[in-house]
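Incident log, structure service

09:12 report received: a user says their structure output differs between two submissions of the same chain.
09:20 pulled the input from the user's history:
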Amino acid sequence: MANGPLGGVRVLDVSTILAGPLASSLLGEFGAEVIKVEHPATGDPARHYPPLEDGESAAWAMLGRGKRSVTIDLHHAEAAHLVGRLAAAVDIVVTNFRPATLRRFRIDFDDLRAYRPDLVMVQVSAFGRTGPYADRPGFARVAEAFAGLTYRTGAPDRPPLFAGYPVADGVTGIYAAFAAMLALRQRDLTGQAQLADIPLYEPLLRMMEDFIVEYGATGKNRERQGNQNPHISPNDLYRTRDGRWLALPASTEQMWRRLVKVMDAADLAVHDSMTARLEHREEIEARVAAFVAEHDLEPLMTLLVDAGVAAGPVNSAADVCADPHIRARGSVVEVPDDRTGRTRLMQAPAGRFSGFDATVGHAAPALGEHTAQVLRDLAGLADQDIHDLRHRGVV
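09:34 re-ran on a clean worker, output below:
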C-alpha cells in the first residue's frame, strides 16, 4: 500500500508470537513494508498454536498477514552480519528478544546502527532494558500480574483472575507501534538513531489511571471488586430474561436520569450524585438487575437505545460476526488466501480515516517464502550467495 501514510517506511520484524509482531502488523496496515525474520526450521512459534488448519495455526492468518517472510537462523555465526545488511535497508527494526539475547546474537541497537546510523529500533521485553529485572524472562500474563492488573481482577472473595485475553501483549503491541512513530519522527527531526525500550508491564501500568494515584492519596490498595466499578454505580453485567448478558454502566448524571426514567423508578432519582449512588450501590444494583431480568435482550436494547441509555450485549465471536453494525463497518472481513485456497475470517484494521485507508494486505506468507527475493533486493546478494547461505544453514 505505497499510498498509505507509512508508504515508503520499511520495517524489519525480528520478533515472535504477539506483542512485537502486532506492532509491526499495525505499521503494515497503514502502508509500511514489513519483512519478518523467522527461524528456518520452525518459523515463528505462533505458526503452531492450535487450532491448526492444514498444519498451520488459524491465528497465523492474522499475525502474519501483509508481511514477507525471510528465514535466518539467528544462532548461526553468520546471521548477525546478514541481519545487519537488512537493517541497513530498513527504517525500523522491531524485536522482542531479551536484552541479553540481542547481545548474544550480536543484533542489539549498537550492533545494528553500525549498519544504519539513523536506525530506529523498538525493543519489547518483559521488564525493559534497565533495572534489576532487565534480563528476566516474561510473557503477557507475567506482565499483567507484575503491573497490578491481575491483582485487581476478579471477585472480592475469590482468587485473582487473568483477563479473558492476554491484554499485555495487545496493549504493548499497540503502544510499541505508537513508540515507533514517535521514534521515527524524532529520527527525522534530528537525523539520529533512536531506541524505544518498551517493557510489557509499563503500558498496562500507564493505562490504569486510578491505580497508583489512589494508593498515593489513601495508602490503600485497590482491591478486587468483580464487575463493580469503584467510581460508578450502577455498573455491572446484568442477565436478561432470555439468558443473555447486558453491560450497563450509568457513568454520568444524564445517563442515570435516563435510566431511572426508562425503568419507571422515580424513587431512585433521589440518589442524584455518584457519591450517593455508591453509598446505595447494593439497592441500586439489585433494582437494575431486576429490571433487566424482566426483558429479553433485543427488545430491551431497543428500549434503552431509544431512551439514549448506553448499554450493549456481551458478545461471543459468533455474535460479533453476525452483528449488523460490525458487518456494515467492515470491522470483520473475509480475506482470500491464494496459498491455501481458503477464505479467512479476521478482524479488519481499527478506525476509519478521511485521507487514507488501511489494508490487511496479502495473506500470511509461507515460511521463508520471500527469503531469496528480499536477500537479493535489500541485502544485495547474488543467487549463488543465497544458495551458499542455505547450504551452510544460515537461511
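09:41 both user submissions now match this output. Likely a transient worker issue. Closing.
09:42 reviewer note: The first helix runs from residue 19 to 29. The two ends are 28 Å apart (CA to CA).
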